[in-house]
């Protein structure tokens, strides 16, 4: 498969050459396939955010280089001429509602496309399309973003990134602080963009259920290193290792583990990861008459 | 600091320099840090000293060109100004490197206490000061995040014409201010929920006790101060 992003031996040191120097990334080499839905997991401070900020060159490698959509980024890459590149890599930061600033919702969503040189008209069209995409009522266009609810503000911020129609979309904990419904809607939006708009999605999350429900590819970070890259089945194959990484199993796998402790092993060769898999296994077991 | 302005001859500056060198050595902080503290101010110092040397009159003229003249007295004055800058920066660096910001806020409160008699809201000021200090790093972090987020949306910070740069500051400043207002609202709600009414009649968690070493340092300070005033011409 084509890779949209490939890191080769990327190391990033914060405050290099000072007594406070601190390695946030250590010799990271990995590939992220085109049009994949990649989840980045790892405990707090493991280097997830540092990793993804390299992808649109907000941070540059201290040593090593990475290639994103054909562009090489290394220590010598300057901030000049990055505009056209950053348009192709959209990034939604944690609590993105904090970056809203315009007088109206529409203007804020148009801000990105206009920075990249779109005409007033095409920026407006892109903005309205993006608002529809994230499920914002178009009647909100003329409202001030500061009058909206937290969930709506989050959507405006995400629409602002989508309006630039990026090829890669990075989401840093996009559902933190949202209610269960808002959570599901945002995650479904990411899936829709991945499958229907052919976007490469990179998602940082602490929700293991989201990882197994949505992602096709998982990167596990620990102490600045990418310790495992592969499909979710592979990532969660070894529960002991997952706990060592200070991570959790998805709830279906957790349930299967507890059943196993109670004497009913339904894991066969690998743990059920999603609710559907879990339900299927249980149905099979009931069918065999093992469980009543 | 006031003592530094009293000094006006070689011996008095010598006494003060000796005192500050001893203080720096006792603080156990590497001298490199102090030199770093001077670095950003070095141009201001050089500029002022040069002005003093070139424009002051009086004394024996050594060299002159148009309105500029260098006299032996102006050289001495320039030297004194240089010393003053150096000593003031050194002693303030000692303060900021050895004392936590919260302790400084507490100190300000103690020093301002007499103003209470004049109905000056000392406690409120101290509270504002300690909250402000506590939020400096938080706001710095937020600024960094907002800058990155806007960069990802195509904003160029720090390049282009002045007009362009000022315009680029808007997407940074508006969210920063609204964020600060949100912080203020949340903080005041949280403070009220925890029983904060106003700054009168509060007890303190951090108590500072007067110790023998405080007395000793004050005695040394007063002695040096008196000595400098006596030595001065």
Automatic annotation (TrEMBL), chain A:
Membrane protein topology class: Peripheral membrane protein
NCBIfam families recorded: ECF_ATPase_2
Ranges where the ABC transporter domain occurs: 5-248
Pfam families associated with the record: ABC_tran
Protein name: Energy-coupling factor transporter ATP-binding protein EcfA2
GO CC term (a single one): ATP-binding cassette (ABC) transporter complex
Subunit structure: Forms a stable energy-coupling factor (ECF) transporter complex composed of 2 membrane-embedded substrate-binding proteins (S component), 2 ATP-binding proteins (A component) and 2 transmembrane proteins (T component).
Subcellular location: Cell membrane
Annotated EC: 7.-.-.-
CDD domains: ABC_cobalt_CbiO_domain1 (cd03225)
Similarity annotation: Belongs to the ABC transporter superfamily. Energy-coupling factor EcfA family.
Entries under Gene3D superfamilies matching the protein: P-loop containing nucleotide triphosphate hydrolases (3.40.50.300)
UniProtKB/TrEMBL annotation, chain B:
Keyword Transcription: no
UniProt xrefs under InterPro entries: ABC/ECF_trnsptr_transmembrane
Keyword Transmembrane: yes
A Pfam family per the record: CbiQ
Subcellular location(s) of the protein: Membrane
Transmembrane segments: 12-34, 41-63, 75-97, 118-136, 215-231
GO CC terms in record: plasma membrane
Superkingdom classification of source: Bacteria
Principal place of residence: membrane
Swiss-Prot/TrEMBL keywords: Membrane, Transmembrane, Transmembrane helix
Alphabetized CDD domains for the sequence: EcfT
Membrane topology classification: Multi-pass membrane protein
Record's protein name: Cobalt transport protein
